[in-house]
Amino acid sequence: MKEVHCAICNKNVKNDEIALNVKILGKQLGSIRCYDCLAAVMNCSTSKLTELSDYYKSSGCNLFKINYLQ
Ligand SMILES: [Zn+2]
Q1: 3-class SS at 5?
Q2: Cα(32) to centroid of ligand 1, in Å?
Q3: What is the Å distance from ligand 1's center to 62 Cα?
Q4: Cα separation, 62 vs 47, whole angstroms
Q5: b/e map of 29-41 (b: 16 or more CB within 10 Å)?
Q6: Which of 5, 8, 28, 35 has the fewest CB neighbours in a 10 Å radius?
Q7: Residue closest to 36 by CA, chosen among 55, 63, 9
Q8: 44 CA to middle of ligand 1, Å?
Q9: 54 CA → ligand 1 middle, Å
Q10: Ligand 1 mean position to 43 CA, how many Å?
Q11: Average pLDDT of the chain?
Q12: Which one, of 29, 28, 30, 50, lies nearest residue 39 by Cα?
């Protein structure tokens, strides 16, 4: 299992965080950000991003079915 780190704070990011990055910012897997740093960039709260993530996941978005950490 591979590890992906946040491009800004270097924290380990989870699969859902990666999926949300891809969903929002497109396929720039070299610059994945954790929810905290992504929230700062997008000027919204971290909880808003987790909600968004859950929403996309429950709506069956294919990007959230990919295992980015394989
Ligand atoms: Zn970060």
Answers
A1: strand
A2: 8
A3: 24
A4: 22
A5: eeebbbbebbbee
A6: 28
A7: 9
A8: 14
A9: 19
A10: 14
A11: 93
A12: 50
Average pLDDT, integer, range 1-11:
92
4 pLDDT band (50/70/90 cuts)?
very high
* Structure-token pair, residue 44: 């919204």
The pLDDT of residue 28 is above 80:
no
User: Dihedrals φ, ψ of 5, to 5°?
Assistant: -115, 150
- pLDDT value, residue 30: 73
CA of 16 to the centre of ligand 1 (A): 14
- Give the pLDDT band of residue 38 (cuts 50, 70, 90): very high
Distance 13 CA to ligand 1 centre (A): 8
Whether the pLDDT of residue 14 is over 70: the answer is yes
Amino acid at 11: K
